[in-house]
Amino acid sequence: MTLPKMNRVLLKLSGEVLMGNNQFGIDPAFVLELAKEVKAAKDTGLEICLVIGGGNIFRGMAGAAQGMDRAQADYMGMLATVMNALAMQSALEQIGVETRVQSAVQMDQVCEPVIRRRAERHLEKGRIVIFAAGVGAPYFTTDSGAALRAAEMKCDALLKGTSVDGVYDSDPKKNPDATRYETVSYSKVLADDLKVMDASAVALCRDNDIPIVVFSIREKGNVAKVLSGNGTQTVVTDHTA
Ligand code: UDP
């Protein structure tokens, strides 16, 4: 489907993409490559809000599975997302893109708190706003944080950059016959439990009519390609035209 004209988008990257080819943590050279992708998208004239996960460092569920208190582990996960946000800020500023980090968990020495009106002002001035720490509460993920900020900042779409080029009817890594959807409705994603984003994030996007564009961030130049309608992606929406 052709994407409608967009002025402001929220780009969600899972923490895993910051690892590059490593198994854990942050690969600064790879983060720089990602920053170039983000810059290319910005250079098309878009206002960009960015949300980065923390899975390359710590996931609350994994901590809980090893016996940690879930909420405590989730707070550690939120701190991981702040580290990733700072790494991305540093990479973006290295290539001349002005950014601000706003965290849902307040840490004044490190970044701003989330203040919607201030974020608006940053975007108007051409800065990229990186929203860290998800929704700022345990038992959530950065997918929900991304959906929340996309709604709050009135973004035209939520772009979800992952390691697969869209949403498939079954896992393409396990099933060679899996087929990719061009578009799929929110209700189908929820009913079939298609692995796009958390159910709460999908529901929030559905309730606020925010299309979710799922694409591969691993392919060079792909963000700009997807935005110009020449990429491979799946659009989760209730509009089929
Ligand atoms: N997290 C949380 N509340 C939020 C956002 C994140 O508790 O609003 C924690 C949670 O433990 C999560 C971790 O931070 O597992 C890292 O975020 P996420 O799993 O979404 O990262 P991604 O999978 O996108 O890399």
Description:
With 241 residues, this protein is an alpha/beta fold. It has a single domain, classed as Acetylglutamate kinase-like (Carbamate kinase), CATH 3.40.1160.10. 36% of the residues lie in helices and 17% in strands. It contains eight helices and nine strands. Strands 4-3-5-2-1-6-8-9-7 form a nine-stranded mixed sheet, sandwiched between helices. Helix 1 crosses helix 3 and helix 5 runs parallel beside helix 7. The longest helix is centred in the middle third of the chain and has 25 residues. The radius of gyration is 17 Å and the shape is globular. The mean pLDDT is 95. It binds uridine-5'-diphosphate. Uridine-5'-diphosphate (UDP) binds next to helix 2, helix 3 and helix 5.
Mean pLDDT: 95
Give the C-alpha Rg: 17 Å
Taking the sheet with the most strands, its summary is: 9 strands, mixed
CATH topology: Carbamate kinase
Bound molecules: uridine-5'-diphosphate
Q: End-to-end distance, in Å?
A: 7 Å
> What is the fourth-level CATH superfamily?
Acetylglutamate kinase-like
CATH architecture: 3-Layer(aba) Sandwich
| Proportion in β-strands | 15-25%
Which sequence of SSEs, written as H and E, runs from N to C? EHEHHEEHEHEEHHEHE
| Spatial strand arrangement across the major sheet | 4-3-5-2-1-6-8-9-7
Secondary structure class reads: alpha/beta
| CATH level 1 name | Alpha Beta
Which of globular, elongated, flat, extended, rod-shaped describes the shape? Answer: globular
**Helix percent band:** 25-40%
Number of strands: 9
Low-confidence parts: none
Number of helices: 8
In total, the number of domains comes to 1
